[in-house]
């Protein structure tokens, strides 16, 4: 990976304090990637590919690395806190296109929070409290969870670095615990490692697992577990040496998280029967926690799962509400969404709006549906970012930055497009949900255009870096 030799020039404004070391940046990336996806989707992926659960994770990791090269170049070239919206705006200078990408990012956060709320209600809370829930009860608990998240958001939650580190270590430690327990179970004679490299059990159960279509469908789901790396670009401006540290932390974090996912993708089908793996009433990671000589009380791991999902949902909803507020202040959606509560000084209407959308999504889709919606929206964003990095090669800057091999973002754009086309062809319901969300963005744009066209106000694309919230995490 080459870098340009030009040294930086002084900025006109004083920079943010560069306080994030290489190790802290690596931990931040890991915390961004490791989240609710792996805690909720292992069984769903097994339903697509049989015992080859590791394969979609490996393919999703490859796709994430391709797109990560584009982010690594762009964030070291433009070290600002706006992510995809900034890059697309610089590449194309089309306010409407910039807005739709920003709106897609916002909606992906809402869909991700909805996914995690369903994950809490469907899996980890029932295991923690020995509940047996109907679908109606599950939905009500998930909605109650969203309302609690909204209440915390309304009070003005501010995630400190220490809390972030603690929650990251809990999530990371939970996955290490599962790997250790699973390996202990294998060594104790539980299961068969060969099951992780076979689809015979799936076929015996009546599932017609054709490798290529199944792998594509599984990858589209597994990709949800790897998103989040794109959010870490928002702290590059505060890294001590972003040109040196950010690419290393980004690729290192993806490698660590991806390796954990692949190992769990091998262990889960190896130690669990196929029927247990794909049973909608079981959670594979909870089942593994109870196996072999190193088994732990299921409630311990259930508590870890709840913390992992709560953390992801809260930060996603904070991001979505602040992004909505920011777009309102930029006058690219109606000013009504920029109202701030006088006492709490939080964006009340934006919180109500984003929570309302999350409620609708949570009530109309399960974990798989909502994860698919999140992935669909982010695939659109990733296609545009991969193209943007190539377009912006014509825009040199006067400082050193990471330069991605041209073929990697090019292949990343094609791969993301291929996965999106596969979704369009095979997953109409989830595509429809994503299109409805983007259609809502179109309505907002048109309504705001009609309301402001006689006021001489225009969307200032030069201020797009103020739109996104710097603390946003994935699902993830």
Can you describe this structure in just a few lines?
The protein is about 65% helix and about 0% strand.
What does this structure look like?
The protein has 476 residues and is an all-alpha fold. The protein has one domain: Amino acid/polyamine transporter I (Up-down Bundle), CATH 1.20.1740. Helices cover 67% and strands 1% of the residues. It is built from 18 helices and two strands. The protein has a two-stranded antiparallel ribbon with strand order 1-2. The protein is globular and about 70 Å long. 55% of the residues are buried. The N terminus and C terminus are likely disordered.
Write the layout of secondary structure elements.
Layout: E1 2-3, H1 22-33, H2 36-40, H3 42-49, H4 54-77, H5 84-92, H6 95-129, H7 135-155, H8 161-187, H9 200-204, H10 211-226, H11 242-271, H12 274-278, H13 284-288, H14 298-329, H15 348-364, H16 367-391, E2 402-403, H17 407-426, H18 428-452
Antiparallel strand pairs: 1-2
Helix pairs in contact: 1-8, 1-11, 3-10, 4-10, 4-11, 4-16, 4-17, 5-6, 5-16, 6-7, 6-14, 6-15, 6-16, 6-18, 7-14, 7-15, 8-11, 8-14, 10-16, 10-17, 14-15, 16-17, 16-18
């Amino acid at each position: 990976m080459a870098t340009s030799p030009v040294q930086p020039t002084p900025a006109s404004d004083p920079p943010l304090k560069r306080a994030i070391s290489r190790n802290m940046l690596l931990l931040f990336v890991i915390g961004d990637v490791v989240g609710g996806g792996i805690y909720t989707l292992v069984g769903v992926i097994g339903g697509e590919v049989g015992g080859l659960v590791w394969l979609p994770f490996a393919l999703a990791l490859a796709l994430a690395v391709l797109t990560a090269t584009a982010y690594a170049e762009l964030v070291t070239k433009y070290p600002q806190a706006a992510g995809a919206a900034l890059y697309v705006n610089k590449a194309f200078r089309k306010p409407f296109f910039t807005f739709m990408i920003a709106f897609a990012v916002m909606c992906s956060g809402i869909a991700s929070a909805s996914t995690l709320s369903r994950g809490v209600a469907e899996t980890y809370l029932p295991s923690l409290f020995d509940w047996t829930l109907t679908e109606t009860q599950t939905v009500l608990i998930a909605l109650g969870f969203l309302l609690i998240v909204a209440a915390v958001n309304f009070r003005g939650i501010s995630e400190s670095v220490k809390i972030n580190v603690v929650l990251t270590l809990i999530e990371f430690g939970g996955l290490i615990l599962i790997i250790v327990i699973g390996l202990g179970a294998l060594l104790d004679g539980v299961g068969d490692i060969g099951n992780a490299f076979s689809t015979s059990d799936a076929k015996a159960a009546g599932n017609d697992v054709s490798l290529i279509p199944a792998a594509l469908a599984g990858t589209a789901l597994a990709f949800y577990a790897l998103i989040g790396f794109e959010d870490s670009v928002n702290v590059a401006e505060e890294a001590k040496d972003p040109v040196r540290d950010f690419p290393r932390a980004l690729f290192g974090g993806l490698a660590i998280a991806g390796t954990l996912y692949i190992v769990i993708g091998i262990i889960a089908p190896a130690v669990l029967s196929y029927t247990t793996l794909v049973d909608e009433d079981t959670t594979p990671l909870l089942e593994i926690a109870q196996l072999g000589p190193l088994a732990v009380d299921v409630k311990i791991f259930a508590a870890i799962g709840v913390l992992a999902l709560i953390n992801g949902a809260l930060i996603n909803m904070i991001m979505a509400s602040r992004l909505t507020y920011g777009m309102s202040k930029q006058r690219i959606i109606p000013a009504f969404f920029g109202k701030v509560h006088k006492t709490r000084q939080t964006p009340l209407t934006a919180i109500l709006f984003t929570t309302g959308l999350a409620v609708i999504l949570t009530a109309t889709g399960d974990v798989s549906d909502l994860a698919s919606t999140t992935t669909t929206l982010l695939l659109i964003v990733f296609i545009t970012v991969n193209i943007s990095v190539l377009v912006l090669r014509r825009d040199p800057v006067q400082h050193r930055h990471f330069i991605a091999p041209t073929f990697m973002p090019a292949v990343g754009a094609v791969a993301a497009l291929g996965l999106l086309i596969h979704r369009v062809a095979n997953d109409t319901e989830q595509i429809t949900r994503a299109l409805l969300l983007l259609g809502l963005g179109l309505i907002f744009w048109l309504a705001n255009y009609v309301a402001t066209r006689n006021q001489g106000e225009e969307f200032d694309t030069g201020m797009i870096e103020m739109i996104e919230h710097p603390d946003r995490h994935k699902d993830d």
